[in-house]
Amino acid sequence: MINSLSGRLLVLTTIFVMLAEVLIFVPSIARFRQDYLFNRLERAQIASLALLADDMIDNELEEELLQNAGVFNVVLRRDEVRQLVLASKMPQPIAQTFDMRDATAMVLIRDAIMRLVRPENEVIRVIGAPVQQAGLLIEVTMETAPLRMAMIDYGIRILVLSAVISVITAFLLFLAMRAFLLKPIKGVVGHMQNYAAAPEDARRIIKPSAGVTELREAEEALKTLQTELTQALRQKDRLAQLGSAVSKISHDLRNILTSAQLFTDRIEASEDPVVKRMAPKLVGSITRAVHLCESTLAFGKAEEPSPTLTMVRLADVVEDVIDSERLASEGFDLSFSDDVPVNMLVRADPEQMYRVLANLVRNARQAIVSSGTGGEINVRAHEDDTAWWIDVSDTGPGLPAKAREHLFTPFQGGARKGGSGLGLAISVELIRGHGGTLELLESGPEGTRFCICLPKGDGAV
């Protein structure tokens, strides 16, 4: 109960109401003390009237008047003459004097608190103004013990009443908050749980109905989120079905094209000049189609496995990539170079790093070869305190503007005619698995440069 929102609301409301009552209690007890002293002054004034009416009263009557007034003596100043009207023996000297005529609120509060914390019985002098303008001033002497006991009794009654009011107020506020706030919140939570059970079902989307403005805004925001999520899930389901269909079609199409590729071997052996001229184009087209099918099948498989990170000598990986691409570019005016420190070790999966670099270098080689002009491909690397940096650059014709817009998007970011755009999409996914980034730094008539960043720390770039 105490850990629930309603329980904590009940406890906090009680505490705050009690705090408010305590703040009211302090001036209230000061007011009670002031009224108590004024009452003693009025009683003393009334008792003095008996003496003023008859100068000859006996000692017993005088003592009775003082006891009824609750004072030891009464001094009345009339017409600038100070007169001791009633008097009796005081048990001890006067300890303090309080002038009630010009006392401020802060002074009254201070004196009341001091009286509560001082338990000893004292005799005090109290000065005030007579009622009905019956003189210039009246002063009495009295004990503080009855005053303090009366203040304590009044304070206890105030605190008990405050506690009762606090509990009742807290309970009523709790019922109101439960009706206007807690129940709608539970309703929203129930809608969320119901929607989570079947997010594809549009009937489970919340319908805003709260009367409280803030809750209504929350329900509308939740409705928007649920609507967008339901649409996204439906779109994802359709894409998954489409991807499955494309994978099946690509699989069968690859088998058909592979068979067609076998027949092209015989066609190339034909002596017909027209066939000789057309055969290479046919072979190239079929080869690209087979490659597209294989790439589509590879991309449609499960996600790439997590990289097995080890300390790899980067120069060895770069050398293997360049050697493979150098064989593929024989007969073309194309050169390869690298600027990788021999002893430079990077934390990476060697197989995945080879695939990424091979992809970048192969794309650069194909771009230069397709341009019909010579060029150079360079791989360089360096490191700093935070990361390893690997640059792959070429002097090719640069990437088309359309390719740069969707460079890392599957089937949209092909850098050359007939390309599927899957190579870079797979490469950026592999580098992201290392916690790093793959970015295109520049591309233009002077060439293209990609940069790989692998962080040295545990956090990703």
Automatic annotation (TrEMBL):
Residue runs in coiled coils: 215-242
Residue intervals passing through the bilayer: 6-30, 158-181
SMART domains found in the cross-reference section: HATPase_c, HisKA
Domain Histidine kinase, chain residue ranges per copy: 248-458
Pfam families tied to this protein: HATPase_c, HisKA
Keywords: ATP-binding, Coiled coil, Kinase, Membrane, Nucleotide-binding, Phosphoprotein, Transferase, Transmembrane, Transmembrane helix, Two-component regulatory system
Main EC class the enzyme belongs to: transferase
Domain of life, per lineage: Bacteria
Catalytic activity: ATP + protein L-histidine = ADP + protein N-phospho-L-histidine
EC number(s) from the headed UniProt entry: 2.7.13.3
Gene3D superfamilies for the chain: 1.10.287.130, Histidine kinase-like ATPase, C-terminal domain (3.30.565.10)
Gene Ontology molecular-function annotations: ATP binding; phosphorelay sensor kinase activity
Stretch forming the signal peptide: none
Name listed for the protein in its UniProt record: histidine kinase
The organism of origin for this protein: Sulfitobacter sabulilitoris
